[in-house]
From TrEMBL:
Signal peptide per UniProt: none
Protein name (database record): Delta(1)-pyrroline-2-carboxylate/Delta(1)-piperideine-2-carboxylate reductase
Catalyzed reactions: L-pipecolate + NADP(+) = Delta(1)-piperideine-2-carboxylate + NADPH + H(+); L-proline + NADP(+) = 1-pyrroline-2-carboxylate + NADPH + H(+)
SUPFAM superfamilies: L-sulfolactate dehydrogenase-like
Pfam entry (one): Ldh_2
UniProt cross-references to PANTHER family, sorted A to Z: MALATE DEHYDROGENASE, OXIDOREDUCTASE-RELATED
GO molecular function, one term: protein homodimerization activity
Subunit structure: Homodimer.
Recorded family membership: Belongs to the LDH2/MDH2 oxidoreductase family.
NADP keyword on record: yes
Organism of derivation: Pseudomonas batumici
EC number: 1.5.1.21
GO biological process, one term: proline metabolic process
Protein keywords: NADP, Oxidoreductase
Length: 342
């Protein structure tokens, strides 16, 4: 999925898209709870214009479920391990239902201890990361999450890929406005965006990846066909990607991006790794109101000429989608309806 945007389109409401996607997940082997959580996650990405992790991902979810690589009916096991630490074994299921299962306990701990860590392991994350942190900011909390993916990024100074595309997402409350949220792959480009560029026949900017011989290339197909991505910002992005491997895998008990072998599951696309979420209650910090301080910072940034905050584009697109409906290619909608058995 991801027909070029100039193809025939149709609009669908957010709630209808959630219902349609839930039907797709259910029909392809998930439990009702997993279908609900993944459908909301995927529809939210599409609603916010995060196309690389919206309905574009559905064929990958479906082929992965069909391959037996992931357990769509896994029941996460939540463990209360310390005053500020919650562990979840996702049971080879998806990470988002694991977060949903642990959410209430994580919130309670963050409010009482001032900070709490959620360590999810044995989990698959195939989505955007901001939906995992943004809701905490709407509840007045600061949240940071990292997840590792699959080997496709060459560490800075190395010769072959090892790291995943390893995103970092952050959310913080802001007085009188949407929370401050950013969510970025530590690779120069998300793997999903490389796939979309390949399908649309677009070339990439220099510095994104290398071909199978390790030579710099702007051809997305060469990156996907035996080549690899580079970290963003050279050694700096590479260090952050290494940090993500340590926090999301080593600290949680999940797999590093290079540790799983899905070759015996043709069609498998979802990385089998781990995820870490840290939630902080700013009410425990000294003195001034955190959300007011966030707004002060934003005002100052705007005062020096900043036109666009991270998250602004998504929030603008969200408002438009909720007002006018989500625009999908007709062919994508037909494919979703067929997958839903309609
Ligand atoms: P982008 O480079 O598109 O955006 C990164 C962040 O920068 C966003 O918060 C974005 O805000 C902000 N931003 C973009 N342009 C500007 C600008 N000009 N000024 C200020 N802020 C800006 O994201 P990536 O390609 O790095 O990642 C895309 C998605 O892929 C993410 O959601 C990530 O979680 C997901 N991903 C998931 C993986 C997984 O394993 N599950 C692995 C890798 C990536 P805005 O949203 O408003 O555009
Ligand atoms: O876009 O890099 C990516 C990605 C990896 C796993 C899910 N999304």
């Amino acid at each position: 999925m991801s027909a070029p945007r100039e193809t025939a389109t149709q609009t669908i409401s957010y709630s209808d898209l959630v219902a349609l996607l839930a039907q797709v997940f259910l029909r392809h082997g998930t439990s009702a709870e997993v279908a609900r959580v993944l459908a909301e996650n995927c529809a939210s990405a599409e609603r916010d214009g995060a196309h690389s992790h919206g309905v574009f991902r559905i064929p990958g979810y479906v082929s992965t479920l069909a391959s037996g690589w992931v357990d769509g009916k896994a029941i996460p096991v939540v463990e209360d391990v310390a005053s500020g630490f919650v562990r979840v074994d996702a049971g080879n299921g998806f990470a988002q239902p694991a977060l949903a299962a642990a959410r209430a306990l994580l919130l309670e701990k963050a409010r009482s201890a001032g900070i709490a860590v959620l360590a999810i392991r044995n989990s698959h994350h195939f989505a955007a990361l901001w939906p995992d942190v943004e809701p905490f900011a709407y509840q007045g909390l600061v949240a940071l999450s990292v997840v590792n993916s699959m080997t496709c990024v060459v560490p800075h100074g190395a010769e072959r890929p090892l790291f995943g595309t390893n995103p970092i997402a952050f959310a913080a409350p802001r007085a009188g406005g949407d929370p401050i949220v950013f969510d970025l792959a530590t690779s120069a480009m998300a793997h999903g965006d490389v796939q979309i560029a390949a399908r649309e026949g677009r070339s990439l900017p220099p510095g994104v990846g290398v071909d199978r011989e390790g030579r710099p290339t702007c051809d997305p197909k060469a990156i996907l066909d035996g080549g690899a991505l580079l970290p963003f910002g050279g050694h700096k992005g590479s260090a952050l990607s290494m940090m993500v491997e340590l926090l999301a895998a080593a600290l949680t008990g999940g797999n590093f991006s290079f540790e799983f072998d899905w070759s015996k599951h043709p069609g498998a696309k979802t990385p089998w790794t781990g995820q870490l979420i840290i939630v902080i209650d700013p009410a425990k910090s000294a003195g001034r109101d955190f959300a007011e301080r966030s707004q002060t910072l934003v005002s100052q940034m705007q005062g020096v000429g900043l036109q666009r905050l991270p998250g602004d584009r998504r929030h603008r697109q969200r408002a438009e989608s909720l007002r006018e409906g989500i625009v999908l290619a007709v062919s994508d909608l037909q494919q979703l309806r067929a997958l839903a058995g309609q």
